[in-house]
Records
---
Amino acid sequence: MVQQSNISNSCNKKCESQFHGDTEARKKELIHVKNPHLERMPCDTLYHIHLGTEYQDLQALFGDIKFVCMGGTPARMKEFAHFIKNEIGYIPPYGTTLEDISKLGHRYSMFKVGPVLSVSHGMGVPSIGILLHEMIKLMYHAQVKDPVFFRIGTCGGIGIEGGNIVITSEALNGYGEPNFDLPVLGKKMSRPAKLDSNLAMDLKNLTLPEDPWDTTIGKTMCADDFYEGQGRLDGAFCEYSEADKIAYLTKLHKNGVRNIEMEAVIFGALTHHAGIRAAIVCVTLLNRLNGDQINSTKEERDEWQARPQKLVSRYIKNQLNLSS
Ligand code: R2B
Ligand code: URA
């Protein structure tokens, strides 16, 4: 929990790489950014989250981070920051308040609650992709060791009714392939969209018998669109029939897909590439086999959206050795 003023005034040091003096052994413990250019850069501006090595001592400010929790909207991630603050009993340093660290970037919201960062990622692969590059670099510059990344979000269930949790075992792109593909220098670059299976199981096992939801581990289809890209019939345009849609969703279900959302492939691919343990924990807003429109009430959705937060909070508390 850092005040904006602390962040922007905290360091006037010259731009210089923090790693030039490090041993090879020490470097191995840190985040793998896998970019030889970074080490040679005199300073690095994390433009979209309004942080940078030139003006801030990122290690002093973020070196204690253990968990990075991402979710779609600024409001939800602010709410999560308050929730996790109470859950872990974090007492902010005297005189500081819960501030949006990235407010002046005008793109994402970020809140620091002791060892937890709560960050909004917007909608879709390009939005979360930019954030992931900058969050992974933030972990690198801050010399954070072995952080765990979570996406806590919403999705459409396939064969799963609204209000239940799906934890992603593997993310598939819109062609049903377990990869994140990106044109780079005019050629297709492909990376596997893998998530940590042990982490997924640990999270599922934190579901209690009295919880009003079921938790399922299954594949996630990541679409680049909410409407046609997810086989909906209620977009502005549609050139397939209801039978085509049901045949497609049924085929996905047979292939082990249990939900559809819009960020999983890049989240899996970039965290896996960086060697970061990561999990995607989403609540279903509807069963897509029964319809397309999200008709639940706001109260119902608010309660449902708190469910992935509760599961992730239980995990964080266990890791911090705090009783549930
Ligand atoms: C889930 O919900 C959003 C679309 O409504 C999108 O960000 C996603 O993955
Ligand atoms: N988010 C999605 O991307 N799809 C849904 O159906 C619901 C939430």
Note: The domain at 146-324 is CATH 3.40.50.1580 (Rossmann fold).
---
Amino acid sequence: MRMKFAGRELDLSRSHVMGIVNVTPDSFSDGGQYNTTELAVQRARQMVADGATFVDVGGESTRPGAAPVSEQEELDRVSPVVEAIARQLDVVVSVDTSSAAVMREGASLGAGLINDVRALQREGAVEAAVETGLPVCLMHMKGAPGTMQERPEYRHVVRDVAAFLMDRVRVCESAGVPADQILLDPGFGFGKSAEHNFQLLAALEQMRMLGYPLLVGMSRKTMLGQVTGREVSERLPASVAAATISALKGVSVIRVHDVRETVDAVRVVEAMQSAAY
Ligand code: 9MG
């Protein structure tokens, strides 16, 4: 299971760690774009030193209640960071966006992956993704970020999420996205109760059987607070536990804030797997 990300080929039968680099006003409290870019690159550099294979650069918060961002604002936030990281660091830069313009710009600046929490459903997104020739991550979200956590309901969460993802796969492949450039993501925390999230976590092997590599993100999320009673700043152990389960269940890319600790956990899983007889 190999996939090429802007010239870098990776074996996705292994688990890789993706570091999160948010470029939103609350992520760096500083006084300007230059400073923000510098700090974002610094953060990415540390993540690479800690073992990240990917860094995911995003300029629009998808947290419930977050203010929407104009396309121009998103471009202004993300472009210099993508360009600087792609030029300076040996890492696959993923661009976390639903905007066709940001996808095109990100690709031209050296991004290697499009990570879209809206699964390329915005106008022009599928066409833009095809044009870039980059792999895409299609994520499931029920509803919209502002309201998605208001009593989400499913007939059967695992089947419903799988059906949505396979429908998006069909649309994307018909439009020209090659099957071997698609990753799928059940979208932990995006329109799901704690029970839905943990049912999806338990069913990751089933999701793998859809035939596409998986990317997941649970780092510091509410679902971990709901079972541990911990605030966001205290969720590292639970995040590492969730990442460990993901690696054991064959997830290819694990999106996290805490790269060093997660890479250690993935290495333990890999050591066990290569020792198994
Ligand atoms: C941007 N973003 C925030 N959470 C995410 C998740 O769980 N998966 C993906 N693919 N992107 C996410």
Note: The chain has one domain: 2-275.
